[in-house]
Amino acid sequence: SFFMERWIEEKSSQGNEDSIGNAREVLSYCQKALS
């Protein structure tokens, strides 16, 4: 989870909104899979 947060932060700092959206979708998917 920490890794995902760091990855999202890196994508955010790059200003690539598409990557941010994709990262959040992946993160939410992972959270659903783990819950």
Task: Provide the descriptors you would attach to this structure in a database record.
mainly alpha; 35 residues; 2 helices; single chain
In brief:
The chain is an all-alpha fold and 35 residues long. It has helices spanning 2-14, 17-34.
The amount of beta strand, in percent, is: under 5%
Level of helix content? over 70%
Average per-residue pLDDT, rounded, comes to 79
**Shape, per Cα inertia axes:** flat
Largest sheet: none
Order of helices and strands: HH
- Number of DSSP helical runs: 2
User: What is the rounded Rg?
Assistant: 10 Å
Counted beta strands: 0
Question: End-to-end distance, in Å?
Answer: 13 Å
Structural class: mainly alpha
Low-confidence stretches: none
Structural domain tally = 1
